[in-house]
Amino acid sequence: xxxxxxxxxxxxxxxxxxxxxxxxxxxxxxxxxxxxxxxxxxxxxxxxxxxxxxxxxxxxxxxxxxxxxxxxxxxxxxxxxxxxxxxxxxxxxxxxxxxxxxxxxxxxxxxxxxxxxxxxxxxxxxxxxxxxxxxxxxxxxxxxxxxxxxxxxxxxxxxxxxxxxxxxxxxxxxxxxxxxxxxxxxxxxxxxxxxxxxxxxxxxxxxxxxxxxxxxxxxxxxxxxxxxxxxxxxxxxxxxxxxxxxxxxxxxxxxxxxxxxxxxxxxxxxxxxxxxxxxxxxxxxxxxxxxxxxxxxxxxxxxxxxxxxxxxxxxxxxxxxxxxxxxxxxxxxxxxxxxxxxxxxxxxxxxxxxxxxxxxxxxxxxxxxxxxxxxxxxxxxxxxxxxxxxxxxxxxxxxxxxxxxxxxxxxxxxxxxxxxxxxxxxxxxxxxxxxxxxxxxxxxxxxxxxxxxxxxxxxxxxxxxxxxxxxxxxxxxxxxxxxxxxxxxxxxxxxxxxxxxxxxxxxxxxxxxxxxxxxxxxx
Length: 523
Hints:
Blueprint: E1 2-5, E2 11-14, H1 19-25, H2 30-41, H3 54-60, H4 64-73, H5 86-89, H6 91-96, H7 101-104, H8 111-114, H9 119-129, H10 165-175, E3 186-189, H11 195-207, E4 214-217, E5 226-227, H12 238-255, H13 264-267, E6 286-291, E7 294-302, E8 308-315, H14 320-338, H15 343-350, E9 359-362, E10 369-370, H16 373-386, E11 415-417, E12 458-463, E13 466-472, H17 475-491, E14 505-507, E15 510-512, E16 519-520
Parallel strand pairs: 3-4
Antiparallel strand pairs: 1-2, 1-5, 6-7, 6-9, 7-8, 9-10, 11-13, 12-13, 14-15, 15-16
């Protein structure tokens, strides 16, 4: 029996399909072969199983549909307990049986034990339903036929026999003189193999003239695709406990369901953490700016989908210490990004960090003030990669914003422009409208008459030789837009009001709440 670990999680049981043909060649009849195969792979049914069967489950309170669901799961499990969980049985059944959510969602919940089955009853049913996973001890099998079924590793929990590694090596050595290249065959060794035995295997391979030798000790990697033993026994101790722990650990890594206090070192113990390297040739950008009079170059590297993968921070004409610290900081952040730390975490942690040099920012179109170089860097990254316009003093103009009229064209106060789809404006004649009394661009959907919906009267405004329809806004709309535009420039990195919780606005060098009138530091 082998157990294949699936890439998407879980395991798949594989029975050696050569067992039955080999038994037929050795002279065993159909009934004997069936019994031997059932002994190895199990009956995979609750029907006729000892202790845990359809009758006993019905007596415990399961209905026919729930028992059928368990039955359909048995061919794919290598331990009976894996067929008894909330995903197979369903929450409704478990709640009907008296279990609460905290119980059946726990990783260490054992439904069979909770139903009152003893470890011995579970073990006896497991041997019949899921098989012994080894042919050793099978009924009708003659002892002299056991070597026919030997494999590279011990099979199952009770298996003892296996092919010694020197048998692999000598078989390869017999064929090597007739082969020009090396033989592609792995020498498998059991988990108990020692360092001395591995050294002996390489020395014997060299002595016998093998051109290459690949060796693998079972269980030497934290995760391997094929296993010949599940480690599941008849109790929750020793091997069974190790298997359950491994399955639980893998599930926690996928879901992130760790209890507070678990360290990443403990959580990822024995697991290789993936790092997503950038391509050798990648895109990015460079932003030159000055923070408090200190020139800084921010460079980025991106994955093919445009997400951030690395950054470089360079200072001009600064001391080696500060440049070195910032360079190492950039490397640390880059590695964190490549190991999967979300950029949002960095932006939230490092924006508004305050220390010198700080002050006015020159050279960046949106950021005009920064509390430190680190604050400037992550304000920039937040804007470019996360769209965080709340972190900048001058938000970028949104897509769809109305163009400014060319010089010499006047726009009356109190007019909102709504462009008709059938009257496009040439790009060469457009520019954003900057009149303070004009609200931001609002393009309304057309009503059934083909005219723009709205309450204002339509007006025609010439823009670069093209007549654009517009509608007159109400006084309230114009005033609201004007106030919002003014307050947007006053908020910046303003804190929340400590009285009512609303966002404050700048009031001189301090902040004032327009909702409750509270002043934070100023009179």
